[in-house]
């Protein structure tokens, strides 16, 4: 039997009982003949509590020191899980991200993994131990400072380790039974997906699906690592995410025409008003945003008014980056030459994802008909070969998701989807 990497989220290790439950599952994998490496998140809401504590001490905590603080959460989880496993009669060793060889760039609070050198992890499992690794963290290549990977960083840690260790599979344990056709907290009749391609999962993750994070899926696709999304609260089979369909009953599981409906209410919209409609203006705007290290999502430019030669450019970005974007643009207003800025954080994005839509011309019409019938007004539209996304009012998002989900026949006839931990992660 080969090596398996398992990742457990914060809701799975939220308390002592949860940690003991996870320990039993880890030991079971070991008893089945696997070498096992486990990646853990901080317990429950520990990370949020540490952030709140930091902000009480300093309204703008230094990135380096905030990273030092936040990595404490995963260290607690890894040590407690190692203790619980040893209590069950098996050897376990815990490792921080830096000890595990997770090498990152130097960007604090949202570092990117640039290499993994898991020599100590390999030696530990070869000696018969279960290796427990603190997720969400690493060490910078330049300066050797402790870094964190941003939200969902433990998923990325797990997949990166799986790739570096040539694991058979990376199992991501959450508090839902797999990937669903929509967020089960919003659509009670959402259906669990048995298999989904990494391409479709990448679009769902980028569009707001919170079961797997975008960077995690991107890493899995690059290194061809199959992911098995399961619940740590049940023994039910989960969802396989891979480049090739899985085999079941001697046959390949085919992917549906539409994989699912994702939504995101964590973004805001910035409109740059009165931009001269000439070459280089858009480049100046987005160079300013890039220099501020802000990632943007959707972009729309209006047709310029013939009388003024001016146009408006709108784009969406994370709400947490909104203030920084406005400040950066205002600072560069003279060089860009726009008239004013508008900021709106009461928006939501709805996305329909499916590889089959590029060969089915009726999908787009059905999508917009469903939104129209639900009384949803559309502000922005963005498309790819396998995705249609629209921006609307935040208050309309839940109803829009349910309407689209039903319109495309995605509702399940069986029991309602269960969110065991209440967070969807």
Automatic annotation (TrEMBL):
InterPro entries: AceGlu_kinase-like_sf, ACT-like_dom_sf, ACT_Aspartokinase, ACT_dom, AKii-LysC-BS, Asp/Glu/Uridylate_kinase, Asp_kin_monofn, Asp_kinase. PROSITE patterns: ACT, ASPARTOKINASE. Its EC number is 2.7.2.4. It catalyses: L-aspartate + ATP = 4-phospho-L-aspartate + ADP. CDD domains: AAK_AKii-LysC-BS, ACT_AK-LysC-DapG-like_2, ACT_AKii-LysC-BS-like_1. Pathway: Amino-acid biosynthesis; L-methionine biosynthesis via de novo pathway; L-homoserine from L-aspartate: step 1/3; Amino-acid biosynthesis; L-threonine biosynthesis; L-threonine from L-aspartate: step 1/5; Amino-acid biosynthesis; L-lysine biosynthesis via DAP pathway; (S)-tetrahydrodipicolinate from L-aspartate: step 1/4. Residues 270-346, 352-425 form the ACT domain. GO terms for molecular function: aspartate kinase activity. It comes from the Bacteria. The keyword tRNA processing does not apply. The keyword Transcription does not apply. Belongs to the aspartokinase family. PANTHER family: ASPARTATE KINASE (PTHR21499), ASPARTOKINASE (PTHR21499:SF3). This is Aspartokinase. It comes from Streptomyces prasinus. The lineage of its organism: Bacteria, Bacillati, Actinomycetota, Actinomycetes, Kitasatosporales.
């Amino acid at each position: 039997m080969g090596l398996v990497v398992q990742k457990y989220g914060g809701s799975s290790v939220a308390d002592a009982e949860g940690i003991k439950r996870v320990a039993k599952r880890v030991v079971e994998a070991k008893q089945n003949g696997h070498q096992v490496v486990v990646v853990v998140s901080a317990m429950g809401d520990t990370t949020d509590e540490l952030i709140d504590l930091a902000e009480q001490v300093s309204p703008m905590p230094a990135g380096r020191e905030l990273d030092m603080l936040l990595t404490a959460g995963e260290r607690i989880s890894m040590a407690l899980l190692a203790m619980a496993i040893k209590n069950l009669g098996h050897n376990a060793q815990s490792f921080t991200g830096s000890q595990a060889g997770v090498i990152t760039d130097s960007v604090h609070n949202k570092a990117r993994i640039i290499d993994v050198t898991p020599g100590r992890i390999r030696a530990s499992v070869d000696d018969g131990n279960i290796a427990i690794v603190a997720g969400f963290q690493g060490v910078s290549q330049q300066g050797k400072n402790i870094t964190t990977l941003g939200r969902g960083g433990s998923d990325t840690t797990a997949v990166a380790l799986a790739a570096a260790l040539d694991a058979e599979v990376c199992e991501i344990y959450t508090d839902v039974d797999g990937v669903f056709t929509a967020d089960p907290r919003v659509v009670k009749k959402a259906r669990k997906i048995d298999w989904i391609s990494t391409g479709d999962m990448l679009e769902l993750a980028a569009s707001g699906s919170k079961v797997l994070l975008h960077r995690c899926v991107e890493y899995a696709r690059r290194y061809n690592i199959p992911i098995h999304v399961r619940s740590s609260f049940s023994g039910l089979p989960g969802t396989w995410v891979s480049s090739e369909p899985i085999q079941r009953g001697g046959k390949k599981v085919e992917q549906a025409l539409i994989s699912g409906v994702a939504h995101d209410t964590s973004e805001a919209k910035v409109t740059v008003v009165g931009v001269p409609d000439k070459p280089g203006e858009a480049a100046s705007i987005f160079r300013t945003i890039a220099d501020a290290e802000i990632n943007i999502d959707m972009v729309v430019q209006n047709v310029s008014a013939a009388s003024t030669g001016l146009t408006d450019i709108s784009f969406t970005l994370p709400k947490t980056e909104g203030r920084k974007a406005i400040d950066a643009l205002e600072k560069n207003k003279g060089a860009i030459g726009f008239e004013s800025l508008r900021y709106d954080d009461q928006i939501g994005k709805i996305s329909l994802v499916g590889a089959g839509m590029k060969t089915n011309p009726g999908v787009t019409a059905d999508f917009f008909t469903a939104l129209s019938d639900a009384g949803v007004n559309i502000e922005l539209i963005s498309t790819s070969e396998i995705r249609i996304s629209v921006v609307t009012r935040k208050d309309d998002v839940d109803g829009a998701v349910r309407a689209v989900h039903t319109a495309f026949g995605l509702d399940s006839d069986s029991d309602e989807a269960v969110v065991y931990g209440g967070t969807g992660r």
